[in-house]
Amino acid sequence: MWDAYKKGYMAYLRLEKSLAEHSIDAYLGDIQKLTDYLQLKSQLLEPAQIELNHLQSFVQWIAELGMKPSSQARLISGLRSFFTYCITEQIIVINPSTLLEAPKMKRALPDFLSFEEIEMMLATIPLNTPEGARNRAMLETMYSCGLRVSELIGLQISCLYPDLGFVRVIGKGNKERLIPIGKDALKYIRIYKEEIRVHMKIQRGKEDFLFLNKHGNPLSRIMVFYIIKDAAQKAGINKKISPHTFRHSFATHLVEGGADLRAVQQMLGHESITTTEIYTHLDRDYLRSTLQQFHPAFQSTRT
To answer: To the nearest 10°, the Cα dihedral for 259, 265, 266, 272?
Structure first.
């Protein structure tokens, strides 16, 4: 009896929310876990019969199975999404997930790179090879614009506005945003386009994608991970580095430079300002220097 609900929910996620297929699979997996639990307890209830206590017991059950708090929180988010859909479609009258609490978590901050470390990584990339020219343009763009890896590999030539100094990015939920792009990134993109890409045999339907592999197809996420890890290793940087490290570094350097958090939120494409606040992990020296520069009590010579 849940198949119809799942099918409707899948259509809602795809059409109304415009989610990527892997995100849809994750949300449907959350509902599958719930129905597996209800069946295990011989309580395969209809959505309208599910109450808060059923969901609390389910969350307790997955916690006892050893699911990490972060995974529990993501699953609870999936449950809330499903029951919101049920409210929208008038399948239920009361949302049982409204008061469902997520586990308390420490917000782990990923590593970020200093500007000097980013320069070191860029310096390891040889510019005398087709792959090197592409990789330099790609990493310059990532750092200049703070792109997600999915946004980077999906970046299209028609979305570049070099005369204006902006790129148009398609982010989560197919939401568009305009982001300023730096002169260095534009310079290396131009070199890659005019000296490398123009000579490539590009697969049909892929002509507008900017960054391509040697077969003329868009780069994969895995390939971007490999390129970044290789550059970090050659630069002698011993940090846990991923494509997100460049995005994190972009935001961190903006905030440390005094950028308005709302502006950073807009450039990153965050729906909520609370998500952007993770990038305000400014070190004590920076905080102290800011106070000394701007706070009257630190500038006063009172006795």
So the answer is: -150
**55, 96 in Cβ contact below 8 A?**
yes
172 assigned to active site: yes
80, 134, 197, 247: the catalytic one is 247
pTM above 0.70, yes or no: no
Interacting residues of 174 by C-beta distance below 8 A, sequence separation 6+: 18
- 115-287: which CATH number, 2.60.40.10, 1.10.443.10, 3.30.70.260, 3.30.420.40? 1.10.443.10
pLDDT digits (tens, 9 = 90+) for 178-233: 999 999 999 999 999 999 999 999 999 999 999 999 999 999 989 999 999 999 99
pLDDT tens digits, 233-262? 999 998 888 888 888 888 888 877 777 778
